[in-house]
Amino acid sequence: DLTVAATLTDPDPSADVVILDAVQPRAWPSGNVLAIHTQSTNWFRPSGTLEAPPIVDWKSTHALLRFVNFDNVQLAKAMNATLPTWMTPLVESPSAPMLAAGEHDGQRAVWVGFNPLDSTWPLRVSFPIFIANAMDWLSPEVGTSLRAGESFAIRMADEESTVTVTLPNGSEETTQTTANGELIFANTFQQGVYRAVLGANEVTFCVNLLDASESAIGPLEQLQLGEYGRVEATVQLDADKEAWRWIAILCLGFLMFEWWFYHRRTA
Prior knowledge:
Blueprint: E1 17-21, E2 32-36, E3 45-51, E4 57-58, E5 77-82, E6 87-92, E7 97-104, E8 107-112, H1 126-138, E9 145-147, E10 152-155, E11 162-166, E12 172-176, E13 182-185, E14 192-198, E15 201-208, H2 212-215, E16 222-225, E17 229-232, H3 244-266
Parallel strand pairs: 1-2, 2-8, 9-15
Antiparallel strand pairs: 3-5, 4-6, 6-7, 7-8, 10-13, 11-12, 11-14, 14-15, 16-17
């Protein structure tokens, strides 16, 4: 369910994710939050405005920026804010971060330091992809069965640590967790069983190529296209009906009548 309010007065709302869009909340939420063009004296220290800052780098390996790029995104203006130490800049300009994310005391936060309406980002396909990634990251559901190519994310420690992941072919890959101990593993292009080991902690997850919707080849009464579009089945019509037989019978009847009429006149 979606609830919209002019401001936030309850620091502990009954919501999975709180989205702050260009507002200064009276109470900073205690749960996971997506803050867009929002500054907080608790987390962010404002220090002016940047005019037309160029985007020079972004971390495409992070789960929030999966399939997201900023090649053709221009900003009219953005906030110049100092981030807390537990936040990691994900999109950066030469002088300040434009987008950051992090986790502090079990609370996840994503911060966007500019108003998307003051940019060309909403006109790019990467914008809705980012919103979908943000909702998945802010309200995670740990799944141990993935499709090939999907990222596996789970918190395995309280700080940055080294994790050894054993791939289905037996090879091992060493990777680092984030600063808050979250493992984000994207090299899941082999089908089979993966094992991630961090000290005494071991997590097993599987990757397969199966897709129930792709395997269903029977006719459907209704086909879902996206979230809102759908196509319903109509009455089946045979397209191979041939009319030449009836035309040939009509022509044959006309020829027989002509033959009969000719012989009747000459008899």
